[in-house]
Amino acid sequence: MAQHRAVPKTTVPTIRSRKGGPPLVMITDYDAPGGRIADEAGVDVILVGDSLGMVVLGYDDTLQVTLEDMVHHVGAVARSRPQALLVADLPWLTYHLSAEETVRNAAALIRAGAQAVKLEGGRPRLAMVEALVRAEIPVMGHLGLTPQSIHVMGGYRVQGQQADGATALVEDARALADAGCFAVVLEGVPAEVARLVTEAVPVPTIGIGAGPWCDGQVLVFHDVLGLEDRVLPRFVRRYASLKADAVAAVEAFAADVRSGRFPSAAESYHLADDVAASLGLSRTESRPA
Ligand code: KIV
Hints:
8 strands, 42% helix
């Protein structure tokens, strides 16, 4: 914890300046304990992603996540006071209808504690990116397999596998950077395409399922820790098995309760001997072994 306050708060310009430098580390998070874990581990960026919907809220896709859900969870992470840059996803349909509504919705996330917002899509979103930048709200782009487009893509499919798709990704990334995005997430694209994009733009690219040539990497908190064990996409590396550990721990608790091993005398509060005696209780009755 001491180390926590010794290092200055990471800012948008810090992340922007890391283009081509040591790889950036971003991880998603959705609550205060997770924020403390990510921050003590020294990540550069914490993303309150709309993966919230699937990872924490139990929905089948990210389209169910509302601005109110995001504000609630951004506030929780922000209260862990991370030194990492805190970025929040604009959920589906909060940045599609008008520039004014986009800025208002993004402002709600900033007021909840985010330092920047992330939105999905390329050239069709430029007007919204420009409006946010004019309102002094830093924007991270997100291209490739954009989960909010699941119905248009026909599922979670790797994007940019043909030359025209790859070229479009490069053009989209250039346009986002020109419009003022300080970084761009590349999700679910061939490593070679992510390399082309990374070399084409002056801002850091942060990859997930986009190979090793991005300026940084992001993974979902619950995937890294093995809290999510139902699916294991190719691009996930699991660094712990906390779901299995948690099930074993709760099983052990249940067994102790059922066998009477929990709670012990030391885990209980007790009457003073004279009070117990005045109630007619023997020492044994008032103190379980
Ligand atoms: O919502 C999310 O978790 C994301 C990351 C996968 C980049 O957008």
